[in-house]
Amino acid sequence: MTKDMGTDSVNIETPNETQDAALPVNFVQNIISEDLAQGKNQGRVHTRFPPEPNGYLHIGHAKSICLNFGLALANGGLCNLRFDDTNPSKEDQEYVDSIMEDVRWLGFDWDDRLFYASDYFEHLYEYAIQLIKKGQAFVCDLTAQEIRDYRGTLTEPGQESPYRNRSVEENLDLFTRMRAGEFPDGSRVLRAKIDMASPNLNMRDPVIYRILRATHHRTGDDWCIYPMYDYAHPLSDALEEITHSVCTLEFSDHRPLYDWCLDAVDYSKEAQGRPQQIEFARLNLNYTVMSKRKLKELVDQRYVNGWDDPRMPTISGLRRRGYTPEAIRDFADRIGVAKRNSMVDIGLLEHCIREDLNLRASRVMAVLQPLKVTISNYPEGQVEWLDTDNNPENPDMGTRKIPFAKVIYIEQEDFMEDPPKKFFRLKPDGEIRLKSAYIIRCDEVIKNAAGEVVELHCSYDPESKSGGATAGRKVKGTSHWVSASHALEAEVRIYNHLFMTENPDDEEEGTDYKAKLNPDSLQLLTGCKVEPELAKAVQGDRFQFLRQGYFSVDLDSTPEKLVFNRIVSLRDSWAKVAGQK
Ligand code: ATP
Ligand code: MG
Question: pLDDT tens digits, residue range 414-437?
């Protein structure tokens, strides 16, 4: 076992100049490159992604998945998927299934390397017996509160437990009986015997086993004692021969305990090498929360419609909303891997999906708030099928036909009866061009009894379509439209930030994060009119609705009632910044 685990090498931050262009540029890769150069771990690179199955994965986990699987791929190594299931009261098979689905959807593969910490319960128990025999663990009868009281503070050393010097025999006897179920929950724990005066609180005789009667989603009622994360994690890593155990910054202070477990336990018969813990900064995104506890609370208390609500920062929520795995991987790439926590603007994530869909989503016409337009001089009953590009930025996507007829819909906001000066859309006696069709002039405004505009009577210039004598005639505005008799009815869901403030987790004002939920995070538009082409759309298809944004076909969509999610608007405050990238 190598004991000089390079905790000092964790401080390299600048990219290595001689680095292979294909390798990721981040400090974890630098550590790996150095380890490989020194022939550490027999030249192996083996990482793992270790979720606890106590909730659905979020975009922060996606960062960790991309990093761990990405490092393995780039270095010819392997990455395991390991469920860190040592806390049965909060874990569930539903979460296991959703996590596997999400990792696969993101585009990563663990092959046959699917593991569970619970697979190691017997090993972990044996290791605990080993520690007891070596005098490095003891059964403690203090209550949880007493353990806290004895623990000391950052400035004061802790106090040793009166049970700390039990004999090996007594400890073996009690621990065996803990396993056998002789004692009530919480009445005793097994603690590592380290140092109650350590400046690191995690090293003050940490609890490594507790008694808990809870049915485990895999081991059922086989066990009534469960190992603690800080003990189970390093040893699970060791058993899987992980070389680089990448985790988030809050575990920095736990690293001495991670190393202590690896030193104290003799696992070398089962495994080669020794894992090294490396910490990186977790992803924080503004206008959302990212803790599973809080996300679960939003689901359980029905602030949102489930884990896959398109407003959620969960991978399943982003998927349902219409995000692509490519966009999420691109995002993970752009945010990089740092050693200091920071807040990432959600605008960057939105930029990534726009970039991805720009060249591959078909552009179609959808009128979200329809205003009826009758074209007085257009022949009754006539239908023309006009050509239009599927994506002018990607000619390979071809063209399609759209029907034009006497009655059409335009967007309500594309007409103003009494517009300000620079309004380049339709107004009384004004003209606009209808996208891929004709120029129309507004001749008459029809209102209802309440004085609201309900219809326009217009006339069209028959020579103004493509190929016509006045096709090149310039008018200031172009509007999207659909033929009324051909249009399909749709419901459109527009999402806004889930929270009103940038950092809802910031509870300094003493308010709960839920008080900052955005009451307008979901805007439901019914009676929208979309072009008939969309009859072919199936769940998950993505489109650009001209001038409106990118949209996806929702899970709730049926041929009778189409339902679309707005993935993102077209406005992009990141384009300029990213252009300099
Ligand atoms: P949460 O705090 O959101 O409940 P967690 O850390 O408890 O998350 P785990 O299931 O333990 O969730 O996480 C699995 C892996 O994902 C861990 O290695 C963890 O460090 C990493 N991870 C969790 N949240 C983030 C994040 N916001 N950014 C990057 N990595 C994260
Ligand atoms: Mg965790």
Answer: 999 999 999 999 999 999 999 999
